[in-house]
Model the fold of this input.
Amino acid sequence: MQDVHLTASMRILAGLLESRTGQVLSENRLWRLETSLRPVLRANGLPSLDALVAAIQADPGGALARAAVNALLNNETSFFRDGHIFDVLAHDLLPALMRAIGEAGRERTLRIWCAGCSTGQEAYSLAMLFRNHQDQWPDWRLRIVATDISTLAVERARSGLFSQIDVQRGLAINDLLRWFEPVGEQWRIHASLREMIDFRVDNLFEDKAPAGFCDIIFCRNVLLYFSPGRKAELFRILARHCEAGSYLLLGAGEAVIGQSTDFVASRRFRGTYERIEPKLFDAAI
Ligand SMILES: C[S@@+](CC[C@H](N)C(=O)[O-])C[C@H]1O[C@@H](n2cnc3c(N)ncnc32)[C@H](O)[C@@H]1O
Done:
């Protein structure tokens, strides 16, 4: 790993990101900090990171601070990322949840929250999966709320427009042909899928979205760069948005072990976590 020579400005910018989003820059990303911020410097006619920091300090709540934070976020995503989890959803988890909801006499609607949705590929993958299997559950509806702190990412997600490279990552040709139409050099996902998803800008730690309970929370590849304290805080927040019997899906490199007593690894559905009732002992603390 290359040695990172941290200037005072780099520390301040990394601190800004952490205080606004909880994300801690790894050594590798610290090294790329200047590269990530170059478009912001250029767009604002700023000659250096020092000049950027001075401008942000003059207006901490302003657009420049938000642009710098946006540029430092890792928005890496793709359609049907970690494909096996979508198989588990289609064949096991969604049918089981529908049975449980039916037995509880609830309205035939599945409620899903994609927390940290980036540019929308995860939420659109879910919408496609649901519609591809709709003949198995004709009278069910899917409601997806998808949130991200990055205004740019949410704007792109809402537009439903994807580049050629985006659609080549994880998307089956059948899904591309069925659900997308070419627009110039890009592809736009069908309005009927866009309408299934409510994309919102939201900071997870402000604990605002979505109102009510979810049957599944996707929070994948978001926790990777949080400190242990922030992870535990986030699990507490997520737990407030779901009831016992709901599920939490994390990224491949993420786990709840040691960070939460509200979720346990599911024995039925590999790679998922189940929301459990707090034990009396925990509740009394
Ligand atoms: C690496 S992407 C993962 C996207 C998608 N979940 C996936 O697995 O493909 C992580 C996303 O989390 C978002 N994020 C980071 N900190 C956040 C916070 N405090 N509140 C909301 N979103 C956050 C980032 O903006 C980024 O779009």
Remarks:
- Residues 84-103 form the longest helix (20 residues).
- The CA atoms of residues 149 and 202 lie 5 Å apart.
- Residues 21-23, 73-77, 81, 116-118, 122, 148-150, 153, 203-205, 220-222, 251 surround S-adenosylmethionine (CB under 6 Å).
- The mean pLDDT is 92.
